[in-house]
Protein backbone atom coordinates (compact mmCIF):
# COMPACT_ATOMS: atom_id res chain seq x y z
CA UNK A 1 0.00 0.00 0.00
CA UNK A 2 2.90 2.29 -0.68
CA UNK A 3 3.34 5.01 -3.23
CA UNK A 4 7.01 5.55 -3.96
CA UNK A 5 8.85 7.85 -6.27
CA UNK A 6 6.45 10.78 -6.14
CA UNK A 7 9.15 12.97 -7.60
CA UNK A 8 8.83 15.74 -10.11
CA UNK A 9 8.55 13.40 -13.06
CA UNK A 10 9.44 16.24 -15.40
CA UNK A 11 12.94 16.12 -13.92
CA UNK A 12 13.13 12.37 -14.52
CA UNK A 13 12.00 12.57 -18.12
CA UNK A 14 14.30 15.44 -18.91
CA UNK A 15 17.19 12.97 -19.09
CA UNK A 16 15.68 10.69 -21.75
CA UNK A 17 18.37 9.57 -24.20
CA UNK A 18 19.26 11.89 -27.06
CA UNK A 19 16.20 14.09 -27.05
CA UNK A 20 13.47 11.45 -27.34
CA UNK A 21 10.09 12.92 -26.41
CA UNK A 22 8.81 11.47 -23.13
CA UNK A 23 5.28 10.11 -23.04
CA UNK A 24 4.91 11.79 -19.64
CA UNK A 25 5.49 15.34 -20.79
CA UNK A 26 2.70 17.87 -20.14
CA UNK A 27 -0.19 18.07 -20.63
CA UNK A 28 -0.73 14.30 -20.24
CA UNK A 29 1.50 13.65 -17.23
CA UNK A 30 0.73 10.83 -14.82
CA UNK A 31 -2.76 9.44 -14.20
CA UNK A 32 -2.92 10.32 -10.52
CA UNK A 33 -6.36 8.76 -10.05
CA UNK A 34 -5.06 5.41 -11.22
CA UNK A 35 -1.93 5.81 -9.14
CA UNK A 36 -3.94 6.40 -5.98
CA UNK A 37 -6.29 3.49 -6.66
CA UNK A 38 -3.37 1.13 -7.24
CA UNK A 39 -1.64 2.34 -4.08
CA UNK A 40 -4.74 1.47 -2.04
CA UNK A 41 -4.58 -2.23 -3.02
CA UNK A 42 -2.99 -4.46 -0.35
CA UNK A 43 0.14 -6.12 -1.72
CA UNK A 44 0.81 -3.48 -4.38
CA UNK A 45 3.72 -1.03 -4.46
CA UNK A 46 3.50 1.88 -6.91
CA UNK A 47 6.29 4.03 -8.30
CA UNK A 48 6.05 6.87 -10.78
CA UNK A 49 8.27 7.47 -13.82
CA UNK A 50 10.65 4.56 -13.28
CA UNK A 51 13.21 4.55 -16.08
CA UNK A 52 12.76 1.21 -17.82
CA UNK A 53 16.38 1.08 -18.92
CA UNK A 54 17.18 0.34 -15.29
CA UNK A 55 15.08 -2.87 -15.22
CA UNK A 56 15.97 -4.49 -18.57
CA UNK A 57 19.02 -6.41 -19.75
CA UNK A 58 19.28 -4.21 -22.86
CA UNK A 59 19.48 -1.11 -20.65
CA UNK A 60 17.14 0.76 -22.99
CA UNK A 61 13.81 2.46 -22.34
CA UNK A 62 12.26 5.69 -21.10
CA UNK A 63 10.01 6.13 -18.03
CA UNK A 64 7.01 4.01 -17.12
CA UNK A 65 3.99 6.11 -16.19
CA UNK A 66 3.19 3.73 -13.33
CA UNK A 67 5.52 0.90 -12.28
CA UNK A 68 3.90 -1.53 -9.86
CA UNK A 69 5.14 -4.54 -7.92
CA UNK A 70 2.38 -7.04 -7.17
CA UNK A 71 2.75 -9.59 -4.39
CA UNK A 72 -0.32 -11.83 -4.72
CA UNK A 73 -2.82 -13.28 -7.16
CA UNK A 74 -5.63 -11.35 -5.48
CA UNK A 75 -3.70 -8.07 -5.79
CA UNK A 76 -3.00 -8.78 -9.46
CA UNK A 77 -6.72 -9.27 -10.13
CA UNK A 78 -7.40 -5.87 -8.54
CA UNK A 79 -4.62 -4.25 -10.60
CA UNK A 80 -6.18 -5.64 -13.79
CA UNK A 81 -9.53 -4.21 -12.76
CA UNK A 82 -8.03 -0.76 -12.16
CA UNK A 83 -6.25 -0.89 -15.51
CA UNK A 84 -9.49 -1.68 -17.32
CA UNK A 85 -11.61 0.89 -15.46
CA UNK A 86 -9.07 3.68 -16.00
CA UNK A 87 -8.41 2.67 -19.63
CA UNK A 88 -4.71 2.13 -18.98
CA UNK A 89 -2.69 -0.43 -20.92
CA UNK A 90 -0.95 -2.96 -18.67
CA UNK A 91 2.41 -4.43 -19.69
CA UNK A 92 3.67 -7.38 -17.66
CA UNK A 93 7.37 -7.04 -16.95
CA UNK A 94 9.03 -10.36 -16.21
CA UNK A 95 12.79 -10.79 -16.08
CA UNK A 96 13.36 -7.80 -18.37
CA UNK A 97 15.52 -9.96 -20.61
CA UNK A 98 13.43 -10.25 -23.78
CA UNK A 99 11.88 -6.83 -24.24
CA UNK A 100 12.60 -3.55 -25.99
CA UNK A 101 10.89 -0.51 -24.48
CA UNK A 102 10.45 2.79 -26.41
CA UNK A 103 12.86 5.65 -25.83
CA UNK A 104 9.97 7.90 -24.80
CA UNK A 105 8.76 5.39 -22.22
CA UNK A 106 5.45 3.64 -21.65
CA UNK A 107 2.07 5.08 -20.83
CA UNK A 108 -0.06 2.94 -18.55
CA UNK A 109 1.05 0.34 -16.03
CA UNK A 110 4.21 -1.73 -16.13
CA UNK A 111 3.70 -4.60 -13.70
CA UNK A 112 6.24 -6.87 -12.00
CA UNK A 113 5.34 -10.00 -10.00
CA UNK A 114 6.79 -10.48 -6.53
CA UNK A 115 5.94 -12.05 -3.14
CA UNK A 116 3.83 -15.21 -3.32
CA UNK A 117 4.10 -15.06 -7.11
CA UNK A 118 7.79 -15.94 -6.71
CA UNK A 119 7.22 -18.97 -4.48
CA UNK A 120 7.77 -22.64 -5.34
CA UNK A 121 5.96 -25.65 -3.86
CA UNK A 122 6.97 -29.28 -4.35
CA UNK A 123 4.64 -32.23 -3.79
CA UNK A 124 6.07 -35.54 -4.98
CA UNK A 125 6.89 -35.06 -8.66
CA UNK A 126 4.53 -32.10 -8.98
CA UNK A 127 6.06 -28.62 -8.81
CA UNK A 128 3.97 -25.45 -8.55
CA UNK A 129 5.82 -22.23 -9.30
CA UNK A 130 4.71 -18.62 -9.22
CA UNK A 131 4.89 -16.79 -12.52
CA UNK A 132 7.62 -14.49 -11.17
CA UNK A 133 10.08 -17.33 -10.52
CA UNK A 134 13.01 -17.43 -12.94
CA UNK A 135 13.56 -20.59 -14.98
CA UNK A 136 17.20 -20.66 -13.87
CA UNK A 137 16.22 -20.79 -10.21
CA UNK A 138 13.43 -23.32 -10.78
CA UNK A 139 15.64 -25.71 -12.77
CA UNK A 140 18.39 -25.67 -10.15
CA UNK A 141 16.06 -25.90 -7.16
CA UNK A 142 14.22 -28.89 -8.62
CA UNK A 143 17.44 -30.65 -9.66
CA UNK A 144 18.69 -30.31 -6.08
CA UNK A 145 15.58 -32.27 -5.05
CA UNK A 146 16.27 -34.98 -7.67
CA UNK A 147 13.46 -33.74 -9.92
CA UNK A 148 14.35 -33.67 -13.60
CA UNK A 149 12.88 -32.17 -16.74
CA UNK A 150 13.82 -28.48 -16.67
CA UNK A 151 17.58 -28.74 -17.18
CA UNK A 152 17.59 -27.68 -20.85
CA UNK A 153 15.54 -24.58 -20.01
CA UNK A 154 17.79 -23.44 -17.17
CA UNK A 155 19.70 -20.97 -19.33
CA UNK A 156 16.60 -19.39 -20.85
CA UNK A 157 16.47 -15.83 -19.44
CA UNK A 158 12.83 -15.73 -18.49
CA UNK A 159 10.38 -16.02 -15.65
CA UNK A 160 7.98 -18.95 -15.51
CA UNK A 161 5.10 -16.76 -16.63
CA UNK A 162 6.91 -15.38 -19.65
CA UNK A 163 8.21 -18.83 -20.58
CA UNK A 164 4.69 -20.28 -20.49
CA UNK A 165 3.21 -17.50 -22.63
CA UNK A 166 5.83 -17.96 -25.36
CA UNK A 167 6.26 -21.73 -24.90
CA UNK A 168 9.97 -21.19 -24.35
CA UNK A 169 12.30 -23.83 -25.68
CA UNK A 170 15.98 -24.65 -25.69
CA UNK A 171 18.13 -27.67 -26.59
CA UNK A 172 15.17 -29.74 -27.75
CA UNK A 173 12.93 -29.12 -24.72
CA UNK A 174 9.89 -26.84 -24.59
CA UNK A 175 7.87 -25.72 -21.60
CA UNK A 176 4.86 -27.66 -22.86
CA UNK A 177 6.81 -30.91 -22.48
CA UNK A 178 6.69 -30.64 -18.68
CA UNK A 179 3.77 -28.26 -18.12
CA UNK A 180 0.54 -29.69 -16.65
CA UNK A 181 -1.61 -26.61 -16.11
CA UNK A 182 -1.52 -22.88 -15.42
CA UNK A 183 -3.55 -20.37 -13.45
CA UNK A 184 -4.51 -17.28 -15.43
CA UNK A 185 -5.90 -13.91 -14.34
CA UNK A 186 -7.99 -11.70 -16.63
CA UNK A 187 -9.74 -8.35 -16.05
CA UNK A 188 -13.19 -8.71 -14.52
CA UNK A 189 -13.07 -12.51 -14.31
CA UNK A 190 -12.20 -15.04 -11.62
CA UNK A 191 -8.76 -16.63 -11.88
CA UNK A 192 -9.08 -19.79 -13.98
CA UNK A 193 -7.05 -22.95 -14.44
CA UNK A 194 -6.10 -24.05 -17.96
CA UNK A 195 -4.60 -27.34 -19.07
CA UNK A 196 -1.56 -27.25 -21.34
CA UNK A 197 -3.66 -28.26 -24.35
CA UNK A 198 -5.91 -25.22 -23.77
CA UNK A 199 -2.90 -22.98 -24.48
CA UNK A 200 -2.49 -24.41 -28.01
CA UNK A 201 1.30 -24.27 -27.68
CA UNK A 202 3.44 -24.10 -30.80
CA UNK A 203 6.95 -22.93 -31.66
CA UNK A 204 7.48 -19.86 -29.43
CA UNK A 205 3.76 -19.25 -29.22
CA UNK A 206 0.57 -19.96 -27.24
CA UNK A 207 -3.02 -18.77 -27.39
CA UNK A 208 -2.25 -16.42 -24.47
CA UNK A 209 -0.13 -14.13 -26.63
CA UNK A 210 -1.84 -10.90 -27.59
CA UNK A 211 -4.54 -11.30 -24.91
CA UNK A 212 -5.19 -9.65 -21.55
CA UNK A 213 -4.50 -12.92 -19.73
CA UNK A 214 -1.66 -13.03 -17.22
CA UNK A 215 -0.19 -16.28 -15.94
CA UNK A 216 0.00 -16.29 -12.14
CA UNK A 217 1.19 -19.84 -11.43
CA UNK A 218 2.26 -22.93 -13.35
CA UNK A 219 2.19 -26.59 -12.38
CA UNK A 220 4.85 -28.93 -13.76
CA UNK A 221 5.08 -32.72 -13.84
CA UNK A 222 8.72 -33.71 -13.44
CA UNK A 223 10.39 -37.10 -12.96
CA UNK A 224 12.67 -38.54 -10.32
CA UNK A 225 16.31 -38.96 -11.24
CA UNK A 226 19.93 -38.21 -10.43
CA UNK A 227 19.99 -34.60 -9.26
CA UNK A 228 23.78 -34.36 -9.23
CA UNK A 229 23.93 -35.39 -12.89
CA UNK A 230 21.15 -32.92 -13.69
CA UNK A 231 23.11 -30.08 -12.10
CA UNK A 232 26.18 -31.04 -14.12
CA UNK A 233 24.07 -30.96 -17.29
CA UNK A 234 22.69 -27.56 -16.34
CA UNK A 235 26.21 -26.22 -15.91
CA UNK A 236 27.35 -27.69 -19.23
CA UNK A 237 24.35 -26.42 -21.20
CA UNK A 238 24.71 -22.96 -19.69
CA UNK A 239 28.41 -22.93 -20.55
CA UNK A 240 27.59 -23.79 -24.17
CA UNK A 241 24.84 -21.19 -24.32
CA UNK A 242 26.90 -18.35 -22.89
CA UNK A 243 29.89 -19.18 -25.06
CA UNK A 244 27.70 -18.68 -28.13
CA UNK A 245 26.39 -15.30 -26.96
CA UNK A 246 28.15 -11.94 -26.65
CA UNK A 247 29.42 -11.13 -23.20
CA UNK A 248 30.14 -7.83 -21.55
CA UNK A 249 27.55 -5.80 -23.47
CA UNK A 250 23.86 -5.42 -22.61
CA UNK A 251 21.60 -7.49 -24.86
CA UNK A 252 18.24 -9.26 -24.91
CA UNK A 253 19.31 -12.59 -26.38
CA UNK A 254 17.80 -13.77 -29.65
CA UNK A 255 16.07 -11.00 -31.56
CA UNK A 256 14.24 -13.15 -34.13
CA UNK A 257 12.59 -16.56 -33.99
CA UNK A 258 14.29 -19.25 -36.02
CA UNK A 259 12.38 -19.95 -39.25
CA UNK A 260 11.38 -23.54 -39.84
CA UNK A 261 14.37 -25.63 -40.82
CA UNK A 262 16.93 -22.86 -40.46
CA UNK A 263 18.50 -20.38 -38.04
CA UNK A 264 17.90 -16.64 -37.99
CA UNK A 265 21.52 -16.02 -37.02
CA UNK A 266 22.84 -17.98 -40.01
CA UNK A 267 20.62 -16.06 -42.43
CA UNK A 268 21.57 -12.66 -41.01
CA UNK A 269 25.26 -13.56 -41.04
CA UNK A 270 24.97 -14.74 -44.65
CA UNK A 271 23.72 -11.26 -45.52
CA UNK A 272 27.00 -9.86 -44.21
CA UNK A 273 25.42 -8.01 -41.30
CA UNK A 274 27.59 -9.15 -38.40
CA UNK A 275 29.04 -5.99 -36.87
CA UNK A 276 26.52 -3.69 -38.57
CA UNK A 277 25.66 -0.76 -36.33
CA UNK A 278 23.16 2.02 -35.88
CA UNK A 279 23.83 4.67 -33.27
CA UNK A 280 24.91 2.84 -30.12
CA UNK A 281 23.52 -0.56 -31.15
CA UNK A 282 25.36 -3.30 -33.04
CA UNK A 283 24.58 -6.72 -34.50
CA UNK A 284 26.89 -8.91 -32.48
CA UNK A 285 30.13 -10.10 -34.03
CA UNK A 286 29.69 -13.38 -32.13
CA UNK A 287 26.05 -14.17 -32.84
CA UNK A 288 24.18 -12.43 -35.66
CA UNK A 289 20.77 -12.95 -34.05
CA UNK A 290 21.77 -10.83 -31.07
CA UNK A 291 21.88 -7.03 -30.96
CA UNK A 292 24.06 -5.46 -28.28
CA UNK A 293 23.90 -2.08 -26.62
CA UNK A 294 27.42 -1.02 -27.46
CA UNK A 295 27.20 2.49 -26.04
CA UNK A 296 24.11 4.44 -24.95
CA UNK A 297 21.94 2.77 -27.59
CA UNK A 298 18.35 3.82 -28.10
CA UNK A 299 15.34 1.70 -28.96
CA UNK A 300 15.34 3.46 -32.32
CA UNK A 301 18.86 2.15 -33.00
CA UNK A 302 17.87 -1.44 -32.20
CA UNK A 303 14.73 -1.18 -34.32
CA UNK A 304 16.76 0.17 -37.27
CA UNK A 305 19.04 -2.88 -37.13
CA UNK A 306 16.11 -5.29 -36.81
CA UNK A 307 14.47 -3.77 -39.87
CA UNK A 308 17.74 -3.87 -41.82
CA UNK A 309 18.19 -7.55 -40.99
CA UNK A 310 14.57 -8.39 -41.75
CA UNK A 311 14.68 -6.73 -45.18
CA UNK A 312 18.03 -8.25 -46.08
CA UNK A 313 16.95 -11.79 -45.24
CA UNK A 314 13.59 -11.33 -46.96
CA UNK A 315 15.12 -9.96 -50.14
CA UNK A 316 17.92 -12.53 -50.38
CA UNK A 317 16.32 -15.71 -49.02
CA UNK A 318 12.59 -14.94 -49.30
CA UNK A 319 12.23 -15.68 -45.60
CA UNK A 320 10.30 -13.37 -43.29
CA UNK A 321 11.91 -13.25 -39.87
CA UNK A 322 9.52 -12.71 -36.98
CA UNK A 323 10.63 -10.95 -33.80
CA UNK A 324 11.21 -13.08 -30.73
CA UNK A 325 11.99 -10.06 -28.60
CA UNK A 326 8.89 -8.29 -27.26
CA UNK A 327 8.52 -4.91 -28.95
CA UNK A 328 6.62 -2.87 -26.36
CA UNK A 329 4.40 0.14 -26.87
CA UNK A 330 4.14 1.18 -30.51
CA UNK A 331 7.41 -0.47 -31.51
CA UNK A 332 5.78 -3.62 -32.93
CA UNK A 333 3.52 -1.60 -35.22
CA UNK A 334 6.46 0.52 -36.30
CA UNK A 335 8.59 -2.55 -36.99
CA UNK A 336 6.04 -4.20 -39.28
CA UNK A 337 5.15 -0.94 -41.03
CA UNK A 338 8.76 -0.18 -41.86
CA UNK A 339 9.76 -3.79 -42.50
CA UNK A 340 7.11 -4.02 -45.21
CA UNK A 341 8.89 -1.33 -47.22
CA UNK A 342 11.30 -2.39 -49.99
CA UNK A 343 14.87 -3.07 -48.89
CA UNK A 344 17.55 -0.47 -49.49
Features:
single chain, about 350 residues, alpha+beta, Uridine Diphospho-n-acetylenolpyruvylglucosamine Reductase, domain 2, Uridine Diphospho-n-acetylenolpyruvylglucosamine Reductase, domain 3, five-stranded mixed sheet, 9 helices, 20 strands
Description:
With 344 residues, this protein is α+β, with helices and mostly antiparallel strands. Helix content is 28%, strand content 25%. It contains 9 helices and 20 strands. It has helices at 9-13, 32-39, 73-85, 135-144, 160-166, 227-244, 264-270, 299-317, 331-339; strands at residues 2-4, 44-51, 63-70, 90-92, 99-100, 106-113, 120-123, 126-130, 147-148, 169-170, 173-174, 179-186, 189-195, 214-221, 223-224, 251-254, 277-278, 281-283, 290-293, 326-327. A 5-stranded mixed β-sheet has the order 1-2-3-6-4. The chain has a 5-stranded antiparallel β-sheet with strand order 7-8-14-12-13. Helix 4 packs antiparallel against helix 6 (227-244) and helix 8 (299-317) packs parallel to helix 9. The longest helix is centred in the last third of the chain and has 19 residues, at 299-317. It is globular and about 50 Å long.
Topology readout:
Blueprint: E1 2-4, H1 9-13, H2 32-39, E2 44-51, E3 63-70, H3 73-85, E4 90-92, E5 99-100, E6 106-113, E7 120-123, E8 126-130, H4 135-144, E9 147-148, H5 160-166, E10 169-170, E11 173-174, E12 179-186, E13 189-195, E14 214-221, E15 223-224, H6 227-244, E16 251-254, H7 264-270, E17 277-278, E18 281-283, E19 290-293, H8 299-317, E20 326-327, H9 331-339
Parallel strand pairs: 1-2, 3-6, 4-6, 5-20
Antiparallel strand pairs: 2-3, 7-8, 8-14, 9-15, 10-11, 12-13, 12-14, 16-19, 17-18, 18-19
